[in-house]
Amino acid sequence: MDGFEINKIVAAVIIGVLLVFGVGKFTDYLFYVEKPAQPAYVVEAPVLKVSSSSNNASTVDIAKLLSMGTVEHGQKVFKKCSACHVVAKGGKNKIGPALYGVMGRKSASISDYKYSKALIAHSKTWSYDEMNAYLIKPQAHIKGTKMAFAGLKSEKDRASVMLYMNSKSDNPLTKP
Ligand code: HEC
User: Fold this and answer.
1) What is the overall mean pLDDT for the chain?
2) Which of 9, 64, 115, 127 could potentially form a cystine with 108 if both were Cys, beta carbons 3.0 to 4.6 Å apart?
3) Is any atom of ligand 1 closer than 6 Å to the C-beta of 17?
4) Whose CA is nearest to atom 41 of ligand 1?
5) Which atom of ligand 1 is nearest to the CA of 152?
6) pLDDT tens digits, residue range 106-162?
7) The CATH number of the domain where 109 resides is what?
8) Helix axes 128-136 and 155-167, enclosed angle (nearest 10)
């Protein structure tokens, strides 16, 4: 092997290395997309963070949530609940406990209703925060609750039904 051969080999190696790195750089350049500093349009949607677990502090903006609902719409939404609940004053327990005055009431506090152990252990007051978290997905918020209801996905529905239930009370909660 003479010097010339070695030079060729060295050159080939260098070219190889250059090609590998060079192509990488080149494609970086080819596919470089300049990101605009500002998105072209911003979608303004009410973003409500919801904590699914029952023990950490909720981050829901309740005032904002409630502003989406109306008592009238809540009355319609409550039809989904009325298979199991009565919200009218003096209403009896059905499959679920009587709900007159439930907003602001201690959970599991109807004396002649047989609550699940889970709801008794939960032991909270039905604030807007608590009720909202429960109504999203009851079994997720209180594991073992015997309320066989899938939940209300719509924020408007939850806000409305809370406002409606709050209107059925001797001591309605004040708006947050
Ligand atoms: C299929 C029947 C059923 C439906 C539908 C239902 N619930 Fe219930 N609900 C129950 C049962 C049963 C309990 C008792 C839960 C327990 O003891 O764990 C309960 C408990 C509750 C409680 C707790 C009351 C308390 O005294 O602490 C609230 C609040 C409630 N339901 C609201 C609603 C709302 C609002 C709806 C409609 C959006 C609804 N429920 C739909 C059966 C139902």
Assistant:
1) 87
2) 115
3) no
4) 81
5) 38
6) 999 999 999 999 999 999 999 999 999 999 999 999 999 999 999 999 999 999 999
7) 1.10.760.10
8) 130
Instruction: Report which of 56, 72, 83, 65 is spatially closest to residue 132, judged by C-alpha positions.
Output: 65
- Residue 159 included in any domain: yes
86 within ligand 1 shell (Cβ under 6 A): no
d(CA 116, CA 97): 11
Q: How many domains does the chain have?
A: 1
> Which atom of ligand 1 has the smallest separation from the CA of 145?
18
Would residue 104 be called left, alpha or beta, if left means φ above 0 and alpha means ψ between -120 and 50 degrees? left
Distance 82 CA to ligand 1 centre (A): 10
- Tell me which residue range forms the domain holding 89: 62-167
Q: What is the pTM of this model?
A: 0.74
